[in-house]
Amino acid sequence: MSTKGIVLRAVNVGESDKMLTILTQDLGVVSAYSNGARNLKSKNFASSRLYTYSELTFRETRGKTYIGESAPIESFFGIGKTLDGSALASYISEVACDVAVEGQPEQELLQLVLNSLFCISDSTKPIWQIKSVFELRCASILGFMPDMVGCKVCGKSGFDNVWFDIDDGCYYCEDCFKNSQLEYETEKVDEMSGIYGKHNVLVPISKSVFEAIRFVIYSKPERIMSFNLKDETIKDFCSVCEKYLLSHLERNFVSLDFYHSVVSMIKN
Ligand SMILES: [Zn+2]
Question: Are residues 152 and 225 in the same domain?
Fold first, then answer.
């Protein structure tokens, strides 16, 4: 059976082989050897490169999976052009490999990864936007889509400022929040340290951030990057999206720490 998939991890093994982790449309995440993949003459040379999207077949031999036939579709060569783009691509890869299931179709996740990598490679959107959209949308695909239709208590909508409940994926209006005994985030959490594992976090968000969240979770896949945010609200949006994904996955990622160190290095 042939499927389509993108190489999200490539490790050299032996003299000329590679061990690949591939996110596929029909088989979820697949770990497969690519024999002779580092040899220019190999028929699978191009398809075995990191971030190459291909049509593929697999074969099983003595309990191991190998790439059979392959035909590259897209290579995303532009990813390597910038440090922050490369760092973001490895974070996206680490998350996708972590959440994708083996042997189960992952069409939505694959589409999100391809869309994100395309935007990085072609520099069509700012890096912060690609990262945040990926995080929020990824959480939604995994079943954690927040309910942004109305306040959790009174059901009303159209507020200027609301309290977003990261853990429950819902929001409270100012009045319902004041009337409740809910705890909220008192100190600004350092971006670098992440907040995974911290529960019942409520963060105040402005109308623009609220609208951006709504847009990302409710838009069609091909539209998710098509919005703008005012400069002063970008930081809040990024922080909420990152917290949202990490808190639902209950873990942190080495590649995310690396991404933050790269971004702060570029700024300084
Ligand atoms: Zn309310």
Answer: yes
Instruction: Enter the pTM of the model.
Output: 0.92
Instruction: For tokens 């593929």, name the residue.
Output: 56
Distance 159 CA to ligand 1 centre (A): 9
Q: What is each CA distance from 246 to 11, 191, 251, in whole angstroms? A: 26, 12, 6
Residues 17 and 118 in one domain: no
pLDDT bracket for residue 178 (50, 70, 90): confident
Please report the beta strands in 35-178, taking only residues with DSSP state E, as ranges in sequence order: 53-61, 64-74, 161-165, 170-173
Same domain (yes/no): 141, 227: yes
Q: What's the CA-to-centroid distance between 246 and ligand 1, angstroms?
A: 26
> How far is ligand 1, taken at its centre, from the CA of residue 171, in Å?
8
Distance 42 CA to ligand 1 centre (A): 62
- Shared domain check, 152 and 245: yes
Q: Over the range 93-118, which residues count as b (16 or more CB within 10 Å of their CB) and which as e?
A: bbbbbebbeeeeebeebbebbbbbbb
